[in-house]
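Batch manifest, entry 17 of 40.
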Amino acid sequence: MILAINTSTPQFSVGVLRESGAVLAEQFMAAKSKNFRAMMPVLDGLLRHSGVEWKEISAQAVAVGPGSFTGLRVGLALAKGICQGLGIPVVGVSSLEALAGQSPEGGLPICSIIESRKGEVFAALFKKNGQGLARMSDDSILKYGELPGFIKKTTLFLGNDFDSQSRLLHDVLGPKAKLAPSHVWGLKASAVGLLAIGRVKEQRFDSLLDLIPFYLKPPDIKPNPFASGQEPRPAEGRGSNSTPPADFAIKGRGKDKG
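Output type: structure tokens
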């Protein structure tokens, strides 16, 4: 069985799937804030109530981003801890690709979006075909006002916040933005697990040590002025020039990345 986790959005999700693709159990938590304290109680309850034992889990699937900076670190840490504890392999899955996979069948291009910050979204374009999803663009980070330059024709959208994103999409794109049904919005762990199944069957796993979050852009963090025992530096010497954490993966995820 495959244990799947998504913490790349504030609405986190956990699920258990068979390698056949059957979803045995899943829980989606639409949190009001980026707080993942309920993750372990939810995961424990999901397994207990579904009758699945830890020893039955043979692989772990985890969303690696882009998405919430804190959420991705929490999810990857949890996934790696589970893998080390159970001695099982891991598969990292693109958050935007998994979200696009939840869209209904159809002939329109699919744009999946995940809220970033300051009026920005992570976005990527996909097309459904007989083999699943085909990428039409790299992952990008865009302001809502930049979407008209990214979307060339009528496109099916789904994201992680239907109430706010649907309104903004209509404001900037008008009729070019077709909305997927609201029930397929919000990245589900089952979608993460379903994308991982092929790789699990082919034994194409990620390195537990090398798997890192895909942030796409660094967070707004400031260095600790007391880290080296020195006095705080003046405000103009802090902020945007801080060194990112060692696990940053700030790069494009292209069509050939999978």
